[in-house]
Protein backbone atom coordinates (compact mmCIF):
# COMPACT_ATOMS: atom_id res chain seq x y z
CA UNK A 1 0.00 0.00 0.00
CA UNK A 2 3.08 2.14 -0.14
CA UNK A 3 6.23 3.10 -1.92
CA UNK A 4 9.40 4.34 -0.29
CA UNK A 5 12.99 5.29 -0.96
CA UNK A 6 15.92 4.66 1.36
CA UNK A 7 19.02 6.66 0.47
CA UNK A 8 22.38 7.80 1.77
CA UNK A 9 23.75 11.26 1.04
CA UNK A 10 27.39 10.48 0.42
CA UNK A 11 28.35 14.13 0.89
CA UNK A 12 27.07 14.31 4.48
CA UNK A 13 26.69 10.69 5.53
CA UNK A 14 23.00 11.27 6.27
CA UNK A 15 20.61 8.36 5.82
CA UNK A 16 17.01 9.15 4.83
CA UNK A 17 13.71 7.47 4.09
CA UNK A 18 10.79 9.07 2.25
CA UNK A 19 7.45 7.31 1.94
CA UNK A 20 3.91 7.94 0.70
CA UNK A 21 0.66 5.97 0.70
CA UNK A 22 -3.14 5.99 0.70
CA UNK A 23 -3.27 5.14 4.39
CA UNK A 24 -3.20 7.02 7.67
CA UNK A 25 0.07 8.10 9.34
CA UNK A 26 2.57 6.16 7.23
CA UNK A 27 5.49 7.82 9.00
CA UNK A 28 4.57 6.15 12.28
CA UNK A 29 5.25 2.58 11.08
CA UNK A 30 7.21 2.31 7.83
CA UNK A 31 10.56 4.15 8.20
CA UNK A 32 13.23 3.01 10.66
CA UNK A 33 16.81 4.30 10.78
CA UNK A 34 19.82 3.43 12.93
CA UNK A 35 22.18 6.40 12.50
CA UNK A 36 25.54 5.43 10.91
CA UNK A 37 24.25 1.86 10.42
CA UNK A 38 21.40 2.02 7.88
CA UNK A 39 17.68 2.19 7.22
CA UNK A 40 14.73 -0.16 6.91
CA UNK A 41 11.28 0.35 5.37
CA UNK A 42 8.66 -2.22 6.37
CA UNK A 43 5.46 -2.04 4.35
CA UNK A 44 2.50 -3.82 2.63
CA UNK A 45 0.64 -5.51 5.54
CA UNK A 46 3.22 -3.90 7.76
CA UNK A 47 5.06 -5.82 10.45
CA UNK A 48 6.51 -3.16 12.78
CA UNK A 49 8.95 -5.68 14.24
CA UNK A 50 10.77 -5.85 10.92
CA UNK A 51 11.89 -2.32 11.70
CA UNK A 52 12.48 -2.82 15.41
CA UNK A 53 14.33 -6.13 15.16
CA UNK A 54 16.00 -5.20 11.89
CA UNK A 55 17.64 -2.12 13.41
CA UNK A 56 19.00 -4.23 16.25
CA UNK A 57 20.56 -6.58 13.70
CA UNK A 58 22.01 -3.67 11.71
CA UNK A 59 23.65 -2.38 14.88
CA UNK A 60 25.12 -5.83 15.41
CA UNK A 61 26.80 -5.56 12.02
CA UNK A 62 24.65 -8.07 10.16
CA UNK A 63 24.40 -7.70 6.36
CA UNK A 64 21.06 -6.60 4.84
CA UNK A 65 20.47 -9.93 3.06
CA UNK A 66 21.05 -11.85 6.28
CA UNK A 67 18.67 -9.52 8.13
CA UNK A 68 15.89 -9.93 5.58
CA UNK A 69 16.22 -13.71 5.70
CA UNK A 70 16.13 -13.66 9.50
CA UNK A 71 13.03 -11.46 9.62
CA UNK A 72 10.93 -13.45 7.18
CA UNK A 73 12.03 -16.79 8.64
CA UNK A 74 10.31 -16.04 11.94
CA UNK A 75 7.13 -14.51 10.44
CA UNK A 76 4.44 -16.93 9.26
CA UNK A 77 2.71 -13.97 7.60
CA UNK A 78 5.69 -13.03 5.46
CA UNK A 79 3.82 -13.63 2.19
CA UNK A 80 1.94 -10.37 2.87
CA UNK A 81 5.02 -8.32 3.79
CA UNK A 82 7.41 -6.10 1.89
CA UNK A 83 10.68 -4.86 3.33
CA UNK A 84 13.85 -3.30 2.01
CA UNK A 85 17.07 -2.46 3.80
CA UNK A 86 20.16 -0.44 2.98
CA UNK A 87 23.13 -0.26 5.30
CA UNK A 88 25.66 2.55 5.64
CA UNK A 89 28.00 0.76 3.23
CA UNK A 90 25.32 0.90 0.52
CA UNK A 91 24.53 -2.81 0.64
CA UNK A 92 20.87 -3.48 -0.18
CA UNK A 93 18.43 -6.34 0.27
CA UNK A 94 14.68 -6.52 -0.35
CA UNK A 95 11.80 -8.93 -0.07
CA UNK A 96 8.29 -8.76 -1.58
CA UNK A 97 5.92 -11.48 -0.43
CA UNK A 98 3.89 -13.43 -2.97
CA UNK A 99 0.59 -12.08 -1.59
CA UNK A 100 1.52 -8.40 -1.92
CA UNK A 101 -0.88 -6.57 -4.20
CA UNK A 102 0.19 -5.62 -7.74
CA UNK A 103 1.95 -3.65 -8.86
CA UNK A 104 4.71 -4.55 -6.42
CA UNK A 105 8.46 -4.75 -6.65
CA UNK A 106 11.84 -3.25 -5.88
CA UNK A 107 14.75 -1.57 -7.61
CA UNK A 108 18.09 -0.27 -6.46
CA UNK A 109 20.77 2.16 -7.54
CA UNK A 110 23.96 3.77 -6.27
CA UNK A 111 23.28 4.44 -2.56
CA UNK A 112 19.50 4.14 -2.86
CA UNK A 113 16.77 1.51 -2.70
CA UNK A 114 13.12 1.89 -3.75
CA UNK A 115 10.25 -0.53 -3.12
CA UNK A 116 6.50 -0.39 -3.43
CA UNK A 117 3.28 -2.34 -3.57
CA UNK A 118 -0.33 -1.69 -4.63
CA UNK A 119 1.04 0.84 -7.11
CA UNK A 120 -0.30 2.13 -10.41
CA UNK A 121 2.58 0.36 -12.18
CA UNK A 122 6.31 -0.23 -12.33
CA UNK A 123 6.86 3.30 -13.67
CA UNK A 124 6.23 4.62 -10.15
CA UNK A 125 9.54 3.17 -8.99
CA UNK A 126 11.30 3.93 -12.28
CA UNK A 127 10.36 7.61 -12.17
CA UNK A 128 11.19 7.87 -8.47
CA UNK A 129 14.66 6.55 -9.24
CA UNK A 130 15.18 8.78 -12.27
CA UNK A 131 14.25 11.90 -10.34
CA UNK A 132 16.53 10.96 -7.46
CA UNK A 133 19.45 10.51 -9.85
CA UNK A 134 18.93 13.69 -11.89
CA UNK A 135 18.59 15.81 -8.75
CA UNK A 136 22.03 14.82 -7.47
CA UNK A 137 22.97 18.45 -6.85
CA UNK A 138 19.85 19.20 -4.80
CA UNK A 139 20.03 19.25 -0.98
CA UNK A 140 19.23 15.80 0.39
CA UNK A 141 15.78 16.41 1.88
CA UNK A 142 14.53 18.20 -1.23
CA UNK A 143 16.07 15.53 -3.45
CA UNK A 144 14.13 12.82 -1.61
CA UNK A 145 10.85 14.72 -1.89
CA UNK A 146 11.45 15.44 -5.58
CA UNK A 147 11.92 11.72 -6.18
CA UNK A 148 8.63 10.93 -4.45
CA UNK A 149 6.82 13.66 -6.41
CA UNK A 150 8.01 12.00 -9.62
CA UNK A 151 6.67 8.65 -8.45
CA UNK A 152 3.34 10.25 -7.61
CA UNK A 153 3.18 11.83 -11.06
CA UNK A 154 3.60 8.32 -12.50
CA UNK A 155 0.54 7.13 -10.58
CA UNK A 156 1.75 6.46 -7.04
CA UNK A 157 -0.47 4.32 -4.83
CA UNK A 158 -3.26 3.17 -7.14
CA UNK A 159 -5.89 3.88 -4.47
CA UNK A 160 -4.96 7.56 -4.12
CA UNK A 161 -3.15 9.77 -1.58
CA UNK A 162 -3.38 10.27 2.17
CA UNK A 163 -0.08 10.42 4.07
CA UNK A 164 3.65 10.89 3.56
CA UNK A 165 6.78 11.19 5.66
CA UNK A 166 10.46 12.07 5.51
CA UNK A 167 12.93 10.83 8.12
CA UNK A 168 16.63 11.77 8.04
CA UNK A 169 19.39 10.95 10.50
CA UNK A 170 22.97 12.15 10.67
CA UNK A 171 25.49 10.83 13.18
CA UNK A 172 23.43 11.55 16.31
CA UNK A 173 20.83 9.24 17.84
CA UNK A 174 18.18 11.93 17.34
CA UNK A 175 16.91 12.77 13.87
CA UNK A 176 18.10 15.65 11.70
CA UNK A 177 14.61 15.86 10.23
CA UNK A 178 11.39 13.99 11.04
CA UNK A 179 8.43 15.27 9.03
CA UNK A 180 5.05 13.53 8.96
CA UNK A 181 1.89 14.35 7.06
CA UNK A 182 -0.62 11.94 8.57
CA UNK A 183 -3.85 12.81 6.72
CA UNK A 184 -3.93 15.26 3.81
CA UNK A 185 -5.46 15.57 0.34
CA UNK A 186 -2.00 16.20 -1.16
CA UNK A 187 0.49 14.80 1.34
CA UNK A 188 3.66 15.19 -0.74
CA UNK A 189 2.89 18.85 -1.42
CA UNK A 190 2.36 19.34 2.30
CA UNK A 191 5.59 17.47 3.03
CA UNK A 192 7.44 19.84 0.70
CA UNK A 193 5.88 22.81 2.49
CA UNK A 194 6.97 21.50 5.88
CA UNK A 195 10.49 20.91 4.60
CA UNK A 196 10.62 24.54 3.47
CA UNK A 197 9.40 25.64 6.92
CA UNK A 198 12.15 23.53 8.52
CA UNK A 199 14.73 25.65 6.71
CA UNK A 200 13.37 28.85 8.22
CA UNK A 201 14.91 27.98 11.59
CA UNK A 202 15.09 24.29 12.57
CA UNK A 203 17.87 23.08 10.25
CA UNK A 204 20.05 25.98 11.38
CA UNK A 205 19.12 25.63 15.06
CA UNK A 206 19.77 21.90 15.33
CA UNK A 207 23.56 22.32 15.11
CA UNK A 208 23.48 24.02 18.54
CA UNK A 209 21.76 21.08 20.27
CA UNK A 210 23.67 18.62 22.46
CA UNK A 211 25.69 16.00 20.61
CA UNK A 212 27.95 13.15 21.62
CA UNK A 213 30.96 15.34 20.84
CA UNK A 214 29.52 18.35 22.71
CA UNK A 215 27.17 16.94 25.39
CA UNK A 216 25.93 20.36 26.54
CA UNK A 217 25.52 21.89 23.10
CA UNK A 218 25.33 25.67 22.91
CA UNK A 219 23.08 27.36 25.47
CA UNK A 220 23.98 31.00 24.89
CA UNK A 221 20.86 32.34 23.18
CA UNK A 222 22.73 35.29 21.67
CA UNK A 223 25.17 32.89 19.99
CA UNK A 224 22.31 30.69 18.78
CA UNK A 225 20.31 33.61 17.38
CA UNK A 226 23.36 35.06 15.63
CA UNK A 227 24.25 31.68 14.14
CA UNK A 228 20.71 31.06 12.90
CA UNK A 229 20.51 34.56 11.40
CA UNK A 230 23.83 34.11 9.58
CA UNK A 231 22.75 30.74 8.20
CA UNK A 232 19.44 32.16 7.05
CA UNK A 233 21.25 34.97 5.27
CA UNK A 234 23.58 32.52 3.54
CA UNK A 235 20.59 30.56 2.24
CA UNK A 236 18.91 33.58 0.65
Q: Explain this structure to me?
A:
The chain has helices at 48-59, 64-73, 123-134, 140-153, 187-198, 202-205, 221-235; strands at 2-8, 15-21, 31-34, 38-44, 81-87, 92-96, 105-109, 112-116, 163-169, 177-181. The chain is an alpha+beta fold and 236 residues long. The strands form two sheets. A six-stranded antiparallel beta sheet has the order 7-8-1-2-9-10, covered by helices on one side. The protein has a four-stranded antiparallel beta sheet with strand order 3-4-5-6, covered by helices on one side. Strand 9 (163-169) and strand 10 form a beta hairpin. Helix 3 runs antiparallel to helix 4 (140-153) and helix 4 (140-153) runs antiparallel to helix 5 (187-198).
Write the layout of secondary structure elements.
Layout: E1 2-8, E2 15-21, E3 31-34, E4 38-44, H1 48-59, H2 64-73, E5 81-87, E6 92-96, E7 105-109, E8 112-116, H3 123-134, H4 140-153, E9 163-169, E10 177-181, H5 187-198, H6 202-205, H7 221-235
Antiparallel strand pairs: 1-2, 1-8, 2-9, 3-4, 4-5, 5-6, 7-8, 9-10
Helix pairs in contact: 1-2, 3-4, 4-5
List key phrases describing it.
single chain; 236 residues; alpha+beta; 6-stranded antiparallel sheet; 4-stranded antiparallel sheet; 7 helices; 10 strands
